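Hi everyone, sorry if this is the wrong subforum. Our group has a chain we'd like a structural model of before ordering constructs, and none of us has done structure prediction before. Sequence below.
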Amino acid sequence: MLPPAGRGHIRDPLQGQVNDVKSILIPGRNCWTRTETHDAGVLVDARDYYRELYRAIRKARRSIVITGWQFDSDVTLLRGEDLEEANGGEVRLLPLLDQMCRENPELHVYILAWDFSMLLAMEREWMQNVLFNWTTNERLRFRFDSSSPLYGAHHQKLVVVDGVMAFTGGMDVCDCRWDDRDHPARSTLRCDSGRDPHGPYHDVQTVLTGPAVKPLAELFEARWAHSGGGELHLEPVNRDDLTFEATMPAPPGPVAISRTFGKTILPPQAEVQEIRALYVDAIDAAERFIYIENQYFSSRAIYDALVKRMRAAGRPRLQVMLVLPRQPEALREQIAMGVAQVRLLRALREVASETGHGFAVYGSAAKDEDGSDVFTYIHSKVLIVDDTFMTIGSANTTNRSLGLDSELNLSWEAQAPGDAVSRAIRRVRVSLMAEQAGLAGVAALRPLVAATHMVETLDRLAHDGQHRLRPHPLETVFDQNPLFKPLEPEEFLIDPEESVLDESLFEALHKGDDGLFASGVRLLSRWLVGKSCDTARHSAILPCASVQEEGGTAES
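Answer:
Right subforum, don't worry. Here is the predicted structure as tokens:
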């Protein structure tokens, strides 16, 4: 049984110091491991991330490994004034990687993409196996990973360069993601490879060097082998020239790595729900405020944790602030995820009103030429509590991200309010809130820095209409048209916490080649391939065994 999160003074195994705040991070419960970095930064929005990724690719010597939910071969990494850095050279993702392999015979590139659902086929670049494998250097290898649980997705976003530098967070390297922090209503720079410009888009990534990169590299090795790609050993390159220009520094000191893996039968893989426990424990620990940026909000576990904290007797009143997209991107998500989201948020608002906590949900928008609002699509996955805890990663606040899909988050925790870690977390929070609200200048930011009465402050900004912040309408597509209201469904299968393994349901939803027998054959073949792998080495990465870690037993 994993140890529960404790309250009060808990000794940190890395620093040997007594905490003055409730300790949230416990290896074996809500994180896989906790280790040091040499340097770490936060990259806000794709302009900053794509630029640093371009620089890292250009400097790579031995290996570049990338895993993600989606890729586009021709996504442009540098745009606008940043193009000067390329000096006329290649800036598109796949041609750049191919060029680097041709110029450097020691460089190997491995790309692992989720073998996506057919529901997304029209939204994805076609023939990627051909584009990535048949038109490029032989040392550039691309694979689709289909080893996720039934109806699950591989949603981790990770890049490791030379085994010593890593990027992870909410951003994939693909079309319709690029934007800068100004988020204008219209921008020709958001036009990618001849496509129509997309709307404003916000996301957050992290970059780091040092010992924390090693387990991330091992995570990719295991994912590659698990997909049937064979053994992979990413030996770190001894380098002292890897630098980066982050949007802002990440907190100093150790970083915790947390994961989600859904349960599979073949190949055998136990579930890992470290990120679920991380969110629940962080919410329980909150004493002053909770700030969340996320693409969705439909997690029953997080809803229950917030209700439990709001109803806790004798605890201080909280300020809970969420920044979400005005509505999900695709119609299918608006119908399914959007309805569940609005129901939970309305219920939380009622609980907060009843118990005296501050609670508000916001969107962020720019004014178009005709005076209408153009909302920024929020794709970031950030949770900050009391300026003493911060997690950034790939996990949405949904059931599936906390129990079914593969996810990856990094977290930092202060030892005491006002220490260096706490100050760094506060800088990140204030910067993100200022971006969403459209604020600048010391006087405008002072109320955010003080972190008192923040809901009241943000409410005033959201309702005056003079800045970017907007009250979230908390409405569904069914609310927008009364004729559709009777059609609003009660339950959905699109956001499950666990793999759907019921045979009759699976057969009813998937016929023919996607039926249970065919899927079983495919899973068996993957399992047989996986048997050739070094099980002992990968058991530390994939959740197939239990290992003892400092702080308790970790489901790895």
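For your construct planning: Residues 337-355 form the longest helix (19 residues). The two ends are 14 Å apart (CA to CA).
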